[in-house]
Design brief:
The protein has about 160 residues and is α+β, with helices and mostly antiparallel strands. It has 5 helices and 6 strands, in the order αααββββααββ.
Length: about 160
């Protein structure tokens, strides 16, 4: 998440400029990056215990289904312009760490680690930039958590 979030910010220099001018927005940036990237889209199969009406369709009791966190975090009914990274976004109801009894127990530590790492990185290396075109970065394919194989940078 840390390298992906750093790259996401580098692709959005307006957001970095806002963070530099208003550093109190770092917690908001973390929440928006968690929503925007949704790196841990790992949900085990669930089985409907009752018929569930969902968006005009019915999931019959006994049928299995998979709920995708990334899809929920990019739902235009829940988030205005969901594909846009906006650290001033007022909605903070993403499900990057799950929901309810299945919510990640380490979520607060994850938020803190992400904020500290990104703050320090952008404060100490203000000229940070990708060393290769972003489309050349290789995604990790043998993992349940989305990420990159490597992130070459220069400054």
């Amino acid at each position: 998440m840390i390298p992906l979030a750093a790259l996401d910010l580098l692709r959005h220099p307006d957001q970095v400029a806002l963070l530099r001018s208003e550093p109190h927005r770092w917690p908001d940036a973390v929440e928006e990056l968690l929503r925007h990237l949704s790196v841990a889209d790992v949900i085990p199969l669930r089985v409907a215990t009752d018929d569930i009406e969902l968006d005009g369709a019915t999931i019959p009791a006994g049928d299995g289904f998979i709920a995708l966190l990334a899809a929920a975090n990019h739902d235009p009914r829940a988030f205005d312009r969901p594909d846009v990274l906006d650290i001033t976004r007022p909605e903070r109801h993403h499900v990057a760490f799950g929901y309810g009894p299945h919510q990640c127990v380490g979520q607060n530590l994850g938020r803190l680690e992400l904020e500290v790492a990104l703050r320090v990185l952008f404060d100490r290396v203000p000229s940070l930039r990708p060393a290769v075109p972003l489309e050349e970065l290789a995604a990790r394919s043998a993992s349940a958590v989305f990420g990159l194989e490597e992130v070459p940078v220069e400054w």
